[in-house]
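Support request, please re-run this one:
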Amino acid sequence: MTLATALALAAGVVLLALALQGWWRVRRARPKAGDAHSRFLASTLDERPDPPLDAPPLHDGDTVPGEGPGPAPALRGAPLRRLPRLDALIDALVPLALDAPVSAEQVLQHAPPSRRAGSKPFYLEGLDTESGEWEPLTPGRRYAELQAGVQLASRSGPLNEIEYSEFVQKIEALAEALGASAEPPDMLEVVARARELDGLAAPLDAQLAITLKSNGVAWSVGFVQQVAQRAGLKAGAVPGRWVLPADEDGAPPVLVLSVDAQAALAAGDEQPQGGAVREVWLSLDVPQTPAAVEPFPAWHLLSKQLCDDLDATACDDQGQPITLHAFDHIGREIDDLYGRLEQLGLPAGSPAARRLFS
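Re-run finished. Output below.
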């Protein structure tokens, strides 16, 4: 792909977003040279091979960014009860060479209490002496080798020099305590990779949000809840949020319906003047949701059903009704985005994509 082609594609996304008056919200879109993808993928080939995906459950306190404690997603339809594996595409990996096998308990005793470097999470894995596979540190197991990895980018931006230095300091302290030797990659190379990954991912970070605006009287939060439940949505962890859950445990919701947070709290406190709303929002986080579950058609159909049940109109963030033509146009753009994520090696809904777009 040439630079001109890449710039034209990026400009097309921006113009489309403007034409739809901000309805399709794409974070931090920036044009990048078309050959950056090939250079970036090539730069990962010298890293250690990606560990296998069949890791046991997490036991050492790590969490999935943006999802909190609990099970983590896995790729290609496997049960979503796994820790997101270290991945040379989105992590800077540091091998820790050992003179002799160590137990998980010994490593965890000296491991940093916080598995973050600034805003970026990092992970520890071991090469199990019995299975010969890389896995998260699991009590009762022994490991012939260790490796650590810090995430190169997230929605907060790329890994910077300060964050990488903090990560290296923590891993070198762990290595010293274990009598191991750590071999961190050069800081400038890692930070350059982080910026390149962030630049490639940012134009693909699409989150759809539609406003359902009342055609008449305001709704009580309780009424919205009844309509949401009839539509198959479940109460979320936050008041005033209802979700269409994924089919697999641990996956983020496919769709989220939300109302004003203050109104939801007022309704919960049974305040007589609170809890009334005139609009709700239905959102879809594209990179977090696999294309196979057809989230965009579900988002479109559910918005139509809710409009009927609530007597509402689907509007963009400028308050203008959204046409069928706009839905169709955005649907084609989303299909293209799914394809570009696949080409980057980050299919929507995969563990790496969920970590990167969090």
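The first strand starts at residue 24 and ends at 26. Residues 324-343 form the longest helix (20 residues).
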